[in-house]
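Hi,

I'm pasting everything inline rather than attaching a file, because the server keeps stripping attachments. The sequence lines come first, and each chain or strand is labelled.
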Amino acid sequence: MAIAAAKGRLIAVIGDEDTCVGFLLGGIGEMNKNRQPNFMVVDKNTSISEVEECFKRFLKRDDIDIILINQNVAEMIRHVIDNHNEPIPAVLEIPSKDHPYDASKDSILRRAKGMFSAEDTK
Amino acid sequence: MTKNTSSSDLRSELSDLVKRRIEVAETLANLERQIYAFEGSYLEDTQLYGNIIRGWDRYLNSTSKLSNPSSDKRNRKFKENERLFSKSSITSMAAVSGIIDLNSERAERSSETESQAGMSGSDENSRDFLGLEGVNGDKLGKVSKSRHINKRGSKKSKLKAQTLMKHRLAGAQKGHGLLKKKADALQMRFRSILKKIIDTKVLMGDVMKEAAFSLAEAKFATGDFNQVVLQNVTKAQIKVRSKKDNVAGVNLPVFESYQDGSDTYELAGLARGGQQLGKLKKNYQKAVTLLVELASLQTSFITLDKVIKVTNRRVNAIEHVIIPRIERTLAYIISELDELEREEFYRLKKIQDKKRISRAKAELEKAKRKAEGNIDDEAANILDDAHDEDVLF
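And the predicted assembly:
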């Protein structure tokens, strides 16, 4: 497990139940030694601070290189995501079942706002 | 006893020797005084005709013209350093006059700077004699020359500084050009990555939609398996590795996914809906690979952004701070050099003027003397005379 952590990094998921289940079936889920999962299910009862806490924890963990987050959840903790400038871990915003992908809300693309002239948003 | 007698003998011997030494020294001093006196009269008398020191050219010229006692007096001034005979002895001048001793200290100090110590060897007395009248002028001349050399030294160092500055300016400009090229290359890469990101994100949106749809299908077929899945998490099947990719000197991280271990959910859906579940799993795996690619693009994007900002900052710093500073220093150095040149030029002109004036005065005096019908006192011109009489010793 230690070797795996050294070489291979994990993909974390923060999102609604369906997204998490889907990705776990894809095979990214793992429980580490302290029984800590690399995913978090967010439903309508979850508070913002909880999500924030979880996100910060994932950032601190050195075996997580990619964090997938639903766009609606990302909206909740937009300020934390915007403060995160390091290239690793990479924070990717994915659409959920009820919220299709909105490029204007993506924090990465917002950084390059002045750059692209013709950008088609679906 | 014998020791006492021998010591007393020695003592008396010593006193005898000392007495003899004093006598000899007195004789020597007398002789030197006489030599000095005779030398003075010899030099004075033979000014007209030429002597062993000055040469005998005058002898040939002067026989044709008349002599006048008043002009003789003027010409009888001879330089002190022509006293060759006196100066050949180290003890001579101490005997002659006490005035010279007073100035010996001054002469000793100047003797350090003087390289030429006259005809005799390296001794202070003769230098005392030298140090005063005739050579004082030389000493001053030497001092001024050394100052002149120092000034030229600073000019040389200023020229060196100018070339140094020129090199620095060239270096700064070259660095500026190179950095600009690097910034441009990075910017191009940046734009291409951005375009790819946008495309991939749009694609990802589609893939996610499809995956979610297949999830709904599987749920419909199998029933609710959410809790089962969430509880049975043990080890990740797909993991990512990061590699470093070098672009224009920048290390960009690139992710690649790889499979590590077997599928935890292999037996899931065995009851019913296995095909749907399989399809679902495949869809999500496809989504994961796409997302990993997207993540790589995103990290390169962020890294490049930082590097481009730093490079641009450096380019601007060179362009607006360093190059103007060097240029200003260079301009200052050039102006200083120009000023030095102007000073030299002015000094030369002044000296020429003064020389001209003094020459005019001398001409005037000569003309006056000629008018009074005197001997011509043109200086012996070595170059003119074809018949140089051999100086026989």
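Chain B touches chain A through 59 residues (CB under 8 Å).

If the labels don't parse on your end, tell me and I'll reformat.
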